[in-house]
Amino acid sequence: MKDRCEALTRLLRQSRRVVFFGGAGVSTESGIKDYRSKDGLYNTVKEYGVPPETILSRSFFLKNPEIFYDFYYKYFLSETPAPNPAHLALAKLERMGKLTAVITQNIDGLHQAAGSRNVLELHGTISTYHCIRCCKPYPVEDVAALHGGVPRCPHCGGLIHPDVVLYEEGLDDATVDAAINALAAADLLIIGGTSLAVYPAASFLRFFGGEHIVLINRDATPYDDRAELIFRESIGQVLKSATERL
Question: What domains, with CATH codes, occur in the chain?
Answer without folding.
Answer: 2-31+83-123+170-244 (3.40.50.1220), 41-79+130-164 (3.30.1600.10)
